[in-house]
Amino acid sequence: MFQASRLSLLDLGVILVYFAGLVLAGWFDKRRVLKARDHFLGGNSASWPRVGLSLYATTISAITLVGVTGSAYAHGISVFNYEWPAAILLILFCACVLPTYIRSQVYTVPEFLELRYGRFVRTYVSGLSVLLGTFLDASGALFAGGVLFQILFPAWPLWQVCVLLALLAGAFLILGGLRAILTIEGIQGVIMVTICASMAWFTYQAAGGWHEALAKVPPAHLRLVLPASDPVMPWTGLVTGVPLIGFYFWCTNQTMVQRVLAAKSLDEGRLGSLLGGALKLTSLFLVILPGAAAISLFPHLDHPDTVFSHIVFGLLPHGLVGLIVAACLVSLLSGLAGIYNATSTLLTMDFIRRLWPDLDDLQLVHVGKWTAGGLMAVSVLWAPQIVHFPGLWQYLQALLCYFVPPIAAVFLGGLFVRRVNATGAAWALCAGTAASIVLFVGIALLHAIPLHFLVAAIVIFAVALIALFAGSLTAPAPDPDRIVPLMFSRAVWAAETEHLKTVPWYRNYRHLSVGLFVVTVAIVLRFA
Fold this sequence. Notes:
By secondary structure, the protein is mostly helical. The protein has helices at about 10-30, 35-40, 50-60, 60-75, 85-105, 110-115, 120-150, 160-205, 210-215, 235-240, 240-250, 255-260, 265-280, 285-295, 305-315, 320-355, 360-380, 390-405, 405-415, 420-445, 455-470, 480-485, 490-500, 510-525.
């Protein structure tokens, strides 16, 4: 029976040095936060490496290491189908979505939707985003941290670990805002790549080497494309639900978009986004395949989500264990701080500022800190309940599939179709959410509808899209002068083409996008 080793003095020393180094890095980058844009968007100061590494660090955090390795251990590398579409979707984001965000000078995605559709849509989407940020992102991160650190402190109940992590993340955010988060995550991105590579190497070595490790994995666990009858990742879900929730996550999720909005310029944001997409492809070799290979090392785990902890404390040498514990703790804190910052931004800018419009920048920052505290409390209460679901990763993806397709329908329609208007968007959100609730109850709770949650996502999306167009026809078309600057068009593409003629090829995001697309397709075909 596996038992976690205690942290050695070397491990504890590494943890202390790691934290001291990050504190010093944050101190040297310290700036006085006086304006709301400095607190919520980091003062638009992030360079492209900082943006890309921050995106990667957010998605390769402890929640990913625990959830993805657990899913790979239980079901194989098909979990990579949630990862590689990021590269394709970030190409779309760079070409069509990010330019409209940058031109509009908004704080939040719902604020952008208000410019396109009106206040109702902003309020609706903002409220849903706050709920998802609290019950999905923050609670999921707390649960992942609880699973990991209960190995070190088995006598602590899960809720106590969650309370401690939430309080530390709140202190992290209150002291520095998004600028501090970006500083730490830029460093974390480099370190997490190194850590994952080390973890993968020790896992492969313990299993007898790369080829021997993969030879011990059931062949079905090494395939990306699975039959439509597969209960976890059917190919029908791969071509329907996965792109939808990926579009939401990378193009409209406040937590991710906010990091790109902090870029110095549109070009810096694009290059950073593409870097983030390229780094996501490494997860197959550094996280997912080691998780699948661990089935031969730990064949009878009661809960798949514990496999990451077993790898760390059962296979890795002292010193490296301390580094991983420190990096995972910091990634949890910075990730949670980013989530709390994003959701408190939504509450502050989309609700509280509307109720009290006379609040100045400093007052808004203070209010944002108080709302972050309230969100912390709610997420701590919910996180321990995730243990009742089949797995952390399935919990995260299922909730996304049920509740984000209406947002994707409204956003895509507004980005590309001039005729859609506020009335149609209201119809789409109401009809789509009604479909979400019906399918969630029928599939997840009553098990009365034989439909996979990934396929359910496209059904909900279709309902919302039909409602968007039908509702739009019942009201006049929107004013072109108002909405055209908020949409992607051929004129924007043509103007950009002329601009890119003056840009060196290695900074031309279109050339880089083609290269990223080719690499992505090659990897997918290799393991299809």
